[in-house]
# Entry
Amino acid sequence: MRRAMARAAVGDDDYGEDPTVNELQHLAARIMGTEDALFVPTATMANLIAVMCHCQRRGAQLLLGREAHLHVYEHGGVAQVAGVHFQALPDLPDGTFDLDQLELTIREAHGSRYHPRPELICLENTHSSAGGRALPLAYLQQVRLLADRYGLQVHMDGARLMNAAVAQGVEPAQITQHCDSVSLCFSKVYSHGAPWARWKRHKLGPAFVQGHGAWGHAPSLPAGTGEDPREGCRQLRITSFLGLQGLGAPAGAVLAGRREFVAEAWRVRKLLGGGMRQAGVLAAAARLGLEHAETTLRRDHDNARRFAQGVQELNSPLCSVNLTAVETNIVLVGVKGDWPSPAELCERMQAVSEEEVAETGHAVSVLLFPWSARSLRAVWHWNISTHDTELAKNKLDFVARKCQEKLALGLGTSPWSTGGD
Ligand SMILES: Cc1ncc(COP(=O)(O)O)c(C=O)c1O
# Structure
């Protein structure tokens, strides 16, 4: 990927003259079955642009899920920047809306002089907070019919659209046909061949615990020591704060739709400062990610399922997984009981100890994300192999056993007994 970036032909994309960006846009539009597509720096910007293009009247209202990325993690840009009012509906466990409730909400406001005007429905596919669930095609069709009945537009936050397509065994265009616009993200974090993933382990160095995100994808060695304290430890970053990672490019997203929509999106991108110049270096990485999406994501999905099955087989009183909910590259692990909490379990998955090496023969640090009061989240991406997945599963087995031993001794729940052992 880095070679492709280095070799990319570039031009000034703000003048439409970057050949690599243009190729990427054509490819993305073809894959998504849309007339056109626009390269933008992030999926957050793609979503905001979409809302700004669809909701141009003051008092316009956007309907979206309470747990949607757009609602929770994008700083309310649709309100702050676009001046759009949003109505957040409860998401069902599979990431869908209750269609009756959706219709009721629209009908209440439809034609009313007293309500904001509902103009846009935003869907998220796959649905991140639901654990990477792919929205059923029949559901998408019903949302489309509903939107048409009341004259609304449909935008899909398809940051992980390709995961949905791979999971459902359909062309992405079969999914996007029900939408007026769709965003797709090419990042995040780990590009193909990131150096840390290649570190070979042969001895256990001093234990390390770093905060999430403390290591970038090209970590530098500590100055002066000549030695990496992390040497000897296999670190598996099966995590992501918000977690897409799938296509493995360092940055970038596209927003796709009809030709006039994309022309308007170009203007809004400019307004938001998202017009880039020699963006071909980024587009080259994105294109590679897109071209390999099917193989990469299928492997991620298989590994995620393998891990989830492993968690189920552990049959541990501390954690569980709902296998039917594992459809793509995300696994939500339920954490049971009062101790350890998801955050504590994540810390233990990350920490390495002499005891671990003595018992398992490996020093493995797994970065997971405490997702809710009762769950943690694991996200698969390009850099996590099937072997890594096996190591992560074994690590969870080890950690769960150690926690149970502590609990049996009555130590676990005491606040001062959770630290370094
Ligand atoms: C569903 C969803 N939409 C949008 C985004 C935003 O992506 P970006 O970080 O490129 O702005 C994310 C990021 O994780 C996401 O999960």
